[in-house]
Amino acid sequence: MVWMSQQLGFGELFPNRVELWKRRCHNPLRRACRRGPISASETDALIRILCQMADRLYPMLRTLLSNREAPELLAQRWQRFQDRLAELIRERMNPRRSGVQQLLDPELGAAERRQMVRSLSLAAGEGGFERLRASLLDAAA
Amino acid sequence: MLQSALMKQTLRYDQLSCRLEVDGFPDVSADQAAGSVGIITGWRLEWLGRPELEGEREHLLALMEVVLPYARHLISGVGRRFGGEQRPVAIEPGPTGGHRLELRSSQSGNPSLELELDDAELADLVRVLDGLRLDTRLQLPLALPQSQPLRQRELAERLPLQRRLAAPLAGLTALAAAAALALIVPPPPAPAPTPSAAAAAAGRR
């Protein structure tokens, strides 16, 4: 991620991995969560990094979303994705948050996980930045 | 003739399930470079295993005007129809979980074409349209709406109507039950006046 942020020209905003990690810790779902303001340029940079990562992962996201795959193979892929996601979430996220619990739920979280993968596929690349940024500014539900 | 053939440009955007090709010319009256496109003369959208779509600039703009806002809403989890009955292109969530793209021909008598896309095909379509929209070779202002945050009312569409109505209906039912109970239960009798209060009232008279 540090390499990618430097490739995107954010070397001054995030000069090293610690600075990047400190900004990422403003996510309230994380286990180690930081409070305090974060500037618009930093949030925009984080969104651009996310869109670029989604772009790199797009072939994998696409295979998860395609209905043209054999159902057994698709189920295996989703199972593998779910296991890896659960592993990462347990390691880094706060398990007491209801959003985290929902993502971890094997059955109730299935729709949530599919929505997450679909959002990433639609936010991938340069064109996805505006869409993802606007969605993050949605009114509180 | 030869000069126009030499100046013709084709912009191509490839994804796994579709390919968009846009033909056009640089607008020499606006001093555009030879490799750019300022005038769109036609476009083709080839789908894997589906009929090829083609049209003019207006149809391409109509496609972008509905598909890109639809994708924007999907990121927020809101799936709703874009494109009215009179528009050449419309898209809406499909009955089986996919996306139903409807294209109406401008020529009378031609039936409309309906395509059922899955999430991956929709993402491919969005990517080729993004590729065109952000291509610096396209020197044509595209009047496309900017992505905007959704209002609370629009986000409410994420929940099914039954779940949205459940809380107000439960409240109204509880209120009606309480009102019915209040009508059935007789009011308590008025307290009898105490002797001292009766004497005081007589003294005032």
CA-CA gap between termini of chain A: 31 Å
Count of DSSP H/I helices of chain A: 8
Count of DSSP strands of chain A: 0
SSE run of chain A: HHHHHHHH
Beta-sheet strand percentage of chain B?
Answer: 15-25%
Query: Biggest interface: chains and residue counts?
Result: A-B, 31 and 33 residues
Query: How many domain regions of chain B?
Result: 1
Oligomer kind? heterodimer
Total beta-strand segments of chain B: 7
Based on the coordinates given, report the CATH architecture of chain B: 2-Layer Sandwich
Could you name the CATH topology of chain B?
Secreted effector protein pipB2 fold
Rg measurement of chain B, Å: 32 Å
Which structural class do the helices and strands of chain B define?
alpha+beta
CATH top level label of chain B: Alpha Beta
Counted up, domains of chain A total 2
Helix % of chain A is 55-70%
End-to-end gap of chain B: 118 Å
Largest sheet descriptor of chain A: none
Could you explain the architecture of this structure?
- The complex is a heterodimer of chains A (141) and B (205).
- With 141 residues, chain A is mostly helical.
- Helices cover 65% and strands 0% of the residues of chain A.
- Chain A folds into two domains: 1-57 and 129-141, no CATH class; 58-123, no CATH class.
- In chain A, α4 (58-65) crosses α7 (110-123).
- Chain A starts with a helix and ends in a 5-residue tail after the last helix.
- Chain B is of the alpha+beta class.
- Chain B has six helices and seven strands.
- The longest helix of chain B has 24 residues, at 161-184.
- Chain B is elongated and about 115 Å long.
- The interface between A and B is medium-sized, with 31 and 33 residues.
